Amino acid sequence: MGQLATKSSEGRSITENRKARHDYHIEDTYEAGLVLTGTEVKSLRAGKANLRDAHAEIRGGEIYMVAAHISPYDQGNRFNHDPLRPRKLLMHRREIGRLRAQVAEKGYTLVPLRLYWHNGRAKVELALARGKRQYDKREAMAKRDTEREMAREMRQRRE
């Protein structure tokens, strides 16, 4: 009976960074754990997080998520957390080394795509991404519009 309860909550999304897929070409994704304080966990359980301007930086062999906003906990006291503090991410040293090389050489950036729960622990899906140019964004929007128009035509013809 306990397994059924964990499977239903597995992969439950907290928040997504929808703008990241619009602004970046996603090359690869990685899963990382988060080092959080108690009030941050409670805020995440309430779904109060925002990844819009967030990115990850590698500092001294460790990786940090910067500019991710986790709102202060409503019932928190004077020990409530700073909403924009850098949060350490937990990854294997080999993975961090590989990411460091790619970010330094090829002009990639690390962007968090979503926060979610996995077996009761907060995880972040981190993307190795390259920024899109303005014309790429326009091209993607035009393609999406034509696909939407074609789907609308197909629905109308079926009716």
Task: Explain the layout of strands and helices.
Blueprint: H1 2-9, E1 12-16, H2 18-23, E2 24-34, H3 38-45, E3 49-50, E4 55-59, E5 62-66, E6 69-70, E7 87-90, H4 93-106, E8 109-118, E9 121-131, H5 134-158
Antiparallel strand pairs: 1-8, 2-7, 2-9, 3-6, 4-5, 5-7, 8-9
Describe this structure in words.
With 159 residues, this protein is an alpha+beta fold. It has a single domain (2-132), classed as Small protein B (Small Protein B, Chain: A). Helix content is 38%, strand content 35%. It has five helices and nine strands, in the order αβαβαβββββαββα. The chain has helices at 2-9, 18-23, 38-45, 93-106, 134-158; strands spanning 12-16, 24-34, 49-50, 55-59, 62-66, 69-70, 87-90, 109-118, 121-131. The strands form two sheets. The chain has a seven-stranded antiparallel beta sheet. Strands 3-6 form a two-stranded antiparallel sheet. A hairpin with a 2-residue loop joins β8 and β9. The protein is globular and about 60 Å long.
Question: Summed up, what is this model?
Answer:
The protein is built from 5 helices and 9 strands.
Order of helices and strands: HEHEHEEEEEHEEH
CATH topology: Small Protein B, Chain: A
Report mean pLDDT, rounded to a whole number: 86
The low-pLDDT segments are 1-9
Query: Which strand order does the major sheet show?
Result: 1-8-9-2-7-5-4
CATH architecture: Beta Barrel
Strand content: 25-35%
Number of domains: 1
- E-strand count: 9
Largest beta sheet, briefly?
A: 7 strands, antiparallel
CATH hierarchy class name:
Mainly Beta
**Name given to the CATH homologous superfamily:** Small protein B
Helical fraction equals 25-40%
The shape, in one word, is globular
Q: Given the structure, what is the number of helices?
A: 5
Give the structural class: alpha+beta
Query: What gap, in angstroms, lies between the N and C termini?
Result: 46 Å
* Structural Rg: 19 Å
